[in-house]
Design goal:
Strand order of the largest sheet: 67-70-71-72-73-74-75-76-77-78
Oligomer: single chain
Radius of gyration: 45 Å
Structural class: mainly beta
Helix content: under 10%
Number of strands: 78
Distance between the termini: 36 Å
């Protein structure tokens, strides 16, 4: 009981963990772009193509757009050919290059940026004179009142270029002053610093400039020299790493023009003859495309009161001014300059308006007009409405409470305001609606008249529709069964009687039965001459019934009565059964003759004429029992089931009965399908009649072994695909038929051929074994219990894809299983070796705490893979030993590599869908340790001892494991089997270790996708 409670707690914890993992992975996708409980520290002001953002504590990345807010610990990632400009609330402005990853940290109005990947430029001002940035785990601090800084990360060195102003850079616990047009270069391995003068100053195009073009464009490049002019090599590329070079040329002039015909982000720089590089400039080329013009209406009506207006809009397309061109129906044209991307046009002329729009910017002379949109203005015509509600409705108010009735009509679905007038006793209520229906709340008994008319915005008035609703009080009748009655039925479709008071001068009633109180779902209705009826109810549940009476031109109803139909209480457990002694008799089995089919005309079939042993007895009858279930066992503990008999009558027939003493019990099934507990078991002994005893003795005496003649043991037969072979064996006296059996397994549990023959020989061909080459076993048996030893033969015929009709020969079981000669065979148990391969993208965190130095690193391992080897073995106390080898490897943003290795041995104690046991591991984990400039890997290894538990629920597998030693290691996962050998799931694991006065913690949380390769079976 305690174990079951523990299972439930474990299931709840694993389910909660799965929900938390899914929320952490996908929750941010369903949140708003900016949450009120998060402090906004920056916002996206400009972007080119797709830029991604990840919130703190979430696993998923979402797209951002200009104007979206950023919060502390947000991560920004730019893909290839994309860039972003970020403006901080307290002043600084950051331009992020392509393929860059930036994390934002802001505290007390001081900004700390962690540039995990890529390059950027930063602009400082008087309002934001300080900027802290972390590169490869090392913090750099800039101080300046006006500076434009470019930061480039290389494979061996970091560069800090000052393009404008001057600044101080705190590095290596010292302050370095950088002047305008200087570059500070730091060796990433040694930490050495040197400052050099930039030989070039980039002029045009300006950094991060954007140019629009139609088909092609020529861009002029120019620069100046900080000292004497020298030859300069200009390099133009499609990426910031300058691997995809568009143009490269050495020039003596300080200018160059290049022809472009493709959109995208281009990067350019100058390199001196001494291989000293200048700053990186960026240029974005965008191909002009026409705007998409959207209209809220394409047809506008002019009426006697007013004209409608058309609202049009189009995307901003990074522009602030637009030119709208309108061609009026009178052939006049007007161009309107706009600062917004929307306009409201008053259409007051009958005819067609032609409208188009384009960008009106000085730097976009090639802007294209949008496709022309048309608005048709027509004179409003009369509208017609028709009613969906009957002109006369009679309703019964049973409880004197307000009831709702829906008026509905057919008319234009928009642009029309409808007026509903409801009149009773010369008092009128007026309602307004823009829908094609309106609910009326009616309570008082009486007669209501309603009128509906419509009017358009332009003043066109429709026709009117009208009708009448009569609210009546119900008839005061005594009805049986009464309200709330509970009726118990012994069986479905049992008749239930309904009765009500007789009404004077009324000869006809209408009975109604429904599943709802409004009688919309009628189950049964019937016209009657009497005041009672009986009907069958097939299902249990709540029903509603009433009586309807017609009087001349009116109809009156009785109050609806609800009754509950329930089954009678379940049957009680059967009483103790008597001990029985039953004589076995024999009957001829004619089933083979009865089951004749058309194939018997073409393929011969052995006729079953052997006798069948029968035992019969009677049970005490139970009128409420639909079925009797009898179970007969060999042992008193009821573990070895002999047969299970289901009978619809209390007379029980046991076919193929055998001799011996048995234990039997009975259970009832009522007409609602409910099964009782089984009765206590009683003894049931069987014995043969004198005639049967003598016949059986003759059979036992004749039960001599059958000798197999051909083929010999291990003989190769059927060398050709069309060949056939004759199997023969010794003929036994007084034997009418033999059973010929062929199988691929020693125990003949899955026979391939099971034929009955009246002779001591039979032919088989390759197609009888589906042309499958290999080893087969065969034997021969009789119904009296005679049997041969098994032999093996080998066939060489290759399989052919021939679909031939297959006739299944009925297999007749032996009469007396306890009189057969059984051949004991070794039981085969197959243990499977397998290799499991998988992907496991996850969030990875590393923390180092020590008195001298602390660090915390986290990131996404998106391309992680692992391999697991599993080999089960067996022991006395535990059902299986499972040695396993686990290797996983991956990268965090392609910069930080990690490797985990584990060799463990599990001893499993298996229960139903549940296993547990100890686990011993020699483990070697690669953890993360932060040095002065970079994150390096240091290995820890230790023998561990722990325990694991595993729970299976259908296709769901939950596993938890914890190990102790010099290292604390834990792992929890939840897996779901999809199909074949594929499974998916979520996991969390971690390791904690103390070394050199430092405590290192390593944790992961994410998803995994697995595939299993079984590759070896061992027979035992």
């Amino acid at each position: 009981m305690r174990l079951k409670s523990f299972d439930n707690y474990l299931i709840a914890i694993m389910g909660l963990f799965a929900l938390i993992s899914l929320y952490m992975l996908y929750g941010a996708k369903f949140n708003t772009q900016y949450s009120d409980n998060q402090l906004k520290v920056a916002s996206i002001v400009e972007q080119i193509k797709t830029v991604k953002r990840k919130r703190d504590f979430y696993q998923s990345w979402v797209d951002v757009n200009p104007g979206d807010g950023l919060s502390q610990n947000d991560e920004i990632y730019t893909h290839g050919q994309s860039s972003a400009k970020i403006h901080f609330v307290n002043g600084p402005e950051i331009s992020l290059f392509e393929n860059s990853l930036l994390r934002i940290k802001t505290l007390n109005k001081e900004n700390t940026l962690s540039l995990d990947k890529g390059n950027l430029t930063a602009t400082l001002s008087k309002d934001s004179p300080k900027l802290d940035i972390v590169l490869n785990g090392k913090k750099y601090s800039f101080e300046s009142e006006r500076a434009n800084i470019q930061i480039e990360q290389g494979a061996t060195e970091n560069k800090f270029l000052l393009l404008d102003g001057k600044a101080k850079l705190n590095i290596n616990e010292a302050s370095q002053e950088i002047k305008e047009n200087q570059v500070l270069i730091q060796n990433k391995k040694t930490g050495d610093v040197k400052i050099k003068e930039l030989p070039f100053i980039l002029k045009t195009p300006s950094h991060n400039s954007v140019n629009y073009f139609g088909h092609d464009i020529t861009i002029p490049f120019s620069w100046s020299y900080t000292s004497l002019s020298t030859p300069a090599k200009i390099i133009i590329a499609k990426n910031s790493t300058f691997k995809d070079i568009v143009h490269e040329e050495t020039l003596r002039e300080n200018h160059y023009s290049h022809y472009f015909n493709k959109a995208g982000i281009y990067y350019w720089k100058l390199v001196s003859s001494e291989e000293l590089e200048g700053p990186i400039g960026t240029l974005t080329l965008i191909e002009e495309r026409p705007l998409t013009l959207s209209l809220d209406k394409e047809i506008v009506y002019i009426g006697p009161k007013k004209s409608e207006k058309v609202v049009m809009s189009w995307p901003k397309d990074n522009a602030k001014k637009f030119l709208l061109k309108v061609a009026f129906p009178n052939e006049k044209t007007e161009e309107i300059e706009l600062a917004n991307n929307s306009y409201e046009l008053a259409a007051d002329q009958v005819g067609v308006y032609k409208i188009s729009v384009k960008v009106q910017e000085s730097n976009r002379p090639s802007a294209l007009w949008s496709e022309t949109a048309s608005v048709e203005v027509v004179k409003a015509k009369a509208i017609i409405i028709s009613s969906n509600t009957p002109e006369l409705i009679e309703k019964v108010n049973y409880n004197l409470q307000s009831s709702s009735h829906l008026l509905s009509w057919n008319a234009p679905s928009s642009g029309v305001n409808y007026t509903i007038k409801l009149t009773k006793n010369n008092k009128t209520e007026i309602f307004q609606s823009e829908n094609l229906s309106f609910p009326l709340s009616l309570k008082d008994i009486g007669e209501y008249e309603w009128i509906v008319t419509g009017e358009t915005e332009s003043g066109i008035v429709s026709n009117f529709i009208t009708g009448k609703i009569i609210i009546k009080a119900p008839l005061n009748l005594t009805q049986s069964p009464s309200e709330g009655a509970v009726i118990e039925l012994e069986k479905p479709d049992q008749l239930v009687s309904f009765k009500w008071d007789h009404v004077q001068n009324i000869k006809k009633y209408q009975f109604e039965l429904a599943s709802d109180p409004a009688f919309k779902n009628l189950i049964y209705e019937k016209d009657l001459n009497s005041n009672n009826i009986s009907t069958a109810l097939a299902k249990t549940g709540r029903y509603f019934w009433r009586v309807k009476i017609k009087k001349e031109n009116s109809v009156e109803y009785s109050s609806p009565v609800s009754v509950e139909i329930k089954p009678t209480p379940p049957l009680a457990r059967p009483e103790d059964l008597p001990s029985l002694k039953i004589k076995i008799k024999f009957l001829e089995d004619k089933t083979s003759l009865q089951n004749f089919n058309l194939l018997d005309l073409f393929f011969s079939k052995a006729l079953a004429a052997d006798p069948v042993a029968i035992a019969e007895w009677d049970l005490p009858a139970n009128s409420r029992a639909k079925e009797y279930i009898i179970e007969i066992y060999q042992d008193q503990e009821l573990t070895k089931l002999v047969t299970r008999i289901e009978s619809s009558i209390p007379h029980i027939i046991w076919k193929n009965a055998t001799l011996g003493i048995f234990y039997w019990r009975v259970s009832y099934v009522d007409f609602w399908g409910r099964k009782t507990e089984y009765s206590k078991a009683s003894t049931l002994s069987t014995e043969l009649t004198p005639e049967a005893l003598k016949a059986e003795a003759d059979k036992i005496a004749a039960a001599v072994p059958i000798e197999l003649i051909t083929p010999k043991h291990r003989e190769n037969i059927l060398d050709e695909a069309e060949a056939e072979y004759l199997f023969t064996w010794t003929n036994l006296p007084n034997t009418k038929s033999y059973q010929f059996i062929v199988a691929r397994d020693l125990d003949f549990e899955a026979p391939l051929i099971h034929s009955k023959t009246n002779t001591n020989e039979i032919k088989i061909r390759c197609k009888d074994l589906d042309h499958k080459e290999g080893e087969y076993f065969w034997k021969v048996m009789t119904i009296a219990g005679n049997t041969s030893k098994r032999r093996m033969f080998h066939i060489n015929c290759t399989p052919k894809k021939i679909e031939a009709p297959i006739v299944e020969v009925p297999v007749i079981k032996p009469l007396f299983e306890n009189l057969k000669f059984k051949t004991e065979a070794n039981v085969e148990e197959k243990k499977t070796h397998y290799i499991k391969l998988g992907l496991f993208p996850h969030e990875l965190s590393y923390t180092n705490t020590s008195p001298h130095y602390s660090a915390k690193v986290s990131g996404n391992a998106l391309n992680s893979v692992y391999a697991l080897y599993h080999r089960p073995v067996e022991w006395k106390y535990f059902q299986a030993f499972s040695p396993g080898l686990w290797i996983s490897r991956g990268k965090v943003f392609k910069t930080i590599t990690f490797t985990d290795f584990e060799l463990n041995l599990k001893a499993a104690r298996n229960q139903t869908n549940f296993s547990w046991g100890p686990v011993v591991a020699m483990v070697k984990k690669t953890l993360y340790v932060e040095s002065n400039l970079a994150i390096t890997a240091e290995g820890f290894s230790s023998p561990l001892l722990g325990a694991f538990i595993q729970k299976e629920i259908g296709k769901i597998s939950m596993n938890a494991e914890v190990k102790f030693g010099a290292i604390l290691d834990y792992h929890v996962d939840l897996q779901y089997a999809l199909k074949n050998r594929i499974s998916v799931g979520a996991f969390v694991d971690g390791t904690s270790v103390s070394k050199d006065a430092s405590k290192h913690s390593f944790s992961r949380m994410g998803l995994n996708l697995n595939y299993i390769f079984p590759f070896l079976d061992i027979e035992k």
